[in-house]
Task: inverse folding
């Protein structure tokens, strides 16, 4: 790998203490992000830590990608944390 | 900066040395040497003060991303190579996102190349190899949490924290 490419490395799978907290081995999320689209559905694979802990959450709005959330936060004046 | 002209990092380490000496004189032979006091950011430090802090049992938590973002040849550092060569406990992180970048790979790019976002070489002579840079971000960080027996490397008995990357980091 050339030095300039180091900046472009990213995680395709992240495991924290044995729990998968990020899984994009199929590359779908990255492809959607690059296209500026909301994060794709995960095919039933649960990615929510609370759900994993047996505390089901309402994810009906989860098709809204982070990029769209930031737009919405800006429009509504929601504080953006650094 | 105090009136004597010393920069903040000298004031801090000299202060710790004074407290250490006072504790030793008061009958505590370890002084502060078991407390793992840490100096953070560390854009500038000299080898003699690295050694002084090492002797006090301290460590250095260094950054790179904000130098990549806004650094110049006059605003560069940290002196990664001096720090690594000293053997002092050292680790690396991304700092707050107000002044830096979240991606560890931007930070590691800066450690390895010494180049800022404009492509200018600003930290010449203080860069590290890729494996040493990655150690700063992984294996060497456990010391700062007093959890080097649980974090930082893939070994039996440690927490199963790991990441699969999009590409190999080897040259």
Result:
């Amino acid at each position: 790998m050339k030095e300039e490419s180091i900046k472009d490395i990213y995680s395709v799978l992240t495991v924290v203490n044995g729990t998968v907290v990020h899984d994009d081995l199929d590359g779908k999320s990255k492809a959607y992000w690059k296209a500026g689209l909301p994060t794709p559905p995960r095919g039933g694979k649960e990615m929510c830590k609370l759900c994993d802990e047996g505390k089901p959450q309402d994810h009906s709005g989860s098709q809204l990608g982070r990029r769209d959330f930031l737009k919405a936060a800006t429009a509504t004046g929601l504080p953006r944390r650094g | 900066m105090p009136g004597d002209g010393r920069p903040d990092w000298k004031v801090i380490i000299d202060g710790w040395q004074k407290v250490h000496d006072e504790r030793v004189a008061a009958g505590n032979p370890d002084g502060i040497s078991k407390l793992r006091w840490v100096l953070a950011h560390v854009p500038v430090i000299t080898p003699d003060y690295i050694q002084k802090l090492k002797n006090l049992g301290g460590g250095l938590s260094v950054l790179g991303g904000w130098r990549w973002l806004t650094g110049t040849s006059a605003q560069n550092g940290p002196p990664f190579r001096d720090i690594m060569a000293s053997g002092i406990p050292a680790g690396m992180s991304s700092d707050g996102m107000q002044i830096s970048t979240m991606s560890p790979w931007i930070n590691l790019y800066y450690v390895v190349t010494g180049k800022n976002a404009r492509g200018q070489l600003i930290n010449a002579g203080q860069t590290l190899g890729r494996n040493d840079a990655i150690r700063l971000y992984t294996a060497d960080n456990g010391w700062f949490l007093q959890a080097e027996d649980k974090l930082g490397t893939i070994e039996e008995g440690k927490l199963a924290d790991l990441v699969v990357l999009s590409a190999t980091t080897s040259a």
Observations:
- The longest strand of chain A covers residues 11-16.
